[in-house]
Amino acid sequence: xxxxxxxxxxxxxxxxxxxxxxxxxxxxxxxxxxxxxxxxxxxxxxxxxxxxxxxxxxxxxxxxxxxxxxxxxxxxxxxxxxxxxxxxxxxxxxxxxxxxxxxxxxxxxxxxxxxxxxxxxxxxxxxxxxxxxxxxxxxxxxxxxxxxxxxxxxxxxxxxxx
Length: 162
Description:
The protein has helices at 9-14, 29-40, 52-56, and strands at 19-23, 97-106, 117-130, 133-145, 151-161. By secondary structure, it is α+β, with helices and mostly antiparallel strands. A hairpin with a 2-residue loop joins β3 (117-130) and β4 (133-145).
């Protein structure tokens, strides 16, 4: 085991604390339809995403958004949040990073006029020697809830830094 660590004091202080809260504008029906058209192109998207008459007869009793719909996608300015603290080398040098994978869990579907609130947190990490040298694996969580506090989506991500 190495005595080197890429974990910073800021990471230790932030572990488990929710940060980066932001709220979407109300979801527009036209945004759902455009998203569905773009993601299913050149095929026709499922009617649940664009056909009012069809959608009213489903268990959802109306149009819903595709699970991958992002109500934050059209933001012109990205808010500057406090963010999840990033690891760093003891000498201040930059770490190389890559995506270690993610898992999405879906709750209720997003619907027209929903307002989604997003927040994120640093969940945990571990370090070990790897083929590329000393390596840090960081798990973070992003949670989306609607205006009723219903869970819409939870994403657990692992980032790899070496």
